[in-house]
What we know:
Elements: H1 2-28, H2 33-41, H3 62-65, H4 75-110
Amino acid sequence: MRSFALRRSASALLVAMLAATLLALPVLGPTGPAAVFAAEAEDGEGPPGPEPLERHAEDNPARELAGYEDRETPFTWGAAWILTFAGVVGLVLMLGLYHLLVRRPTQRDQG
């Protein structure tokens, strides 16, 4: 009986916290980054800074900084093959040890 009352009070507390959160949301209003961008956009000037250049334009300085140029084979491609090889070797070793240390002695004791 005591656990039922405890569950009921916990459920009531959860419902009360949810209701308080839902009631507080309209009062708080948008105070995040979206509100800041909206306030800056209302002046009619738009975002500060120069107009962005085309992505592949030759005079775009961000071309090298952002990595838009042709890429070499990424390191993770090679690392994936190395880790796959290491995983297969580890699996074969574990199966071999299982066969030598567990399965063989069990078959020898039974037979």
